[in-house]
């Protein structure tokens, strides 16, 4: 029983690791570069993003624990549902590297479009296993829909932006 708490915490914290890493290595690019981009009026204020991602990463991490637990750990039945989850998490973590780090809006757009598909695939694969886990992913998918639209608008409205850090 005590060991299960460690797994619960580990799965719940895991998404935050990549999110924190992405923020940490790109934190200087936000005030320098991101603030200068043309953004739509409906773009959320900067202070909302860390709060939103903390909630979303916690929900998706706990949901992945529920799936892992229901499938008996790292069993053959877990390969597809947790593989899809891992793949979407990798694309999630890569997005800030493309967007802020490389300033490559086109690659960030391709990344987030693939991410959307993987999240939907993850949720579809989870539905029969654990409906609560699937529901915990709904706010994430909603946020991704907004983030995808925002990425499209920034990409379209800032055609002068070329990949790289030259200014």
TrEMBL record:
Domain of life: Eukaryota
Protein's cellular compartments: Membrane
Residues annotated as signal peptide: none
Parts of the chain that traverse the membrane: 6-26, 47-67, 79-101, 135-155
Cited Gene3D superfamilies: TspO/MBR protein
Topology of this chain in the membrane: Multi-pass membrane protein
UniProt keyword terms in alphabetical order: Membrane, Transmembrane, Transmembrane helix
Family matches, as Pfam families: TspO_MBR
Xref: PANTHER family: PERIPHERAL-TYPE BENZODIAZEPINE RECEPTOR (PTHR10057), TRANSLOCATOR PROTEIN 2 (PTHR10057:SF4)
Family from the record: Belongs to the TspO/BZRP family.
Annotated protein name in UniProt: TSPO protein
The species this protein was found in: Pygoscelis papua (Gentoo penguin)
Organism lineage string: Eukaryota, Metazoa, Chordata, Craniata, Vertebrata
Gene this chain is encoded by: Tspo_1
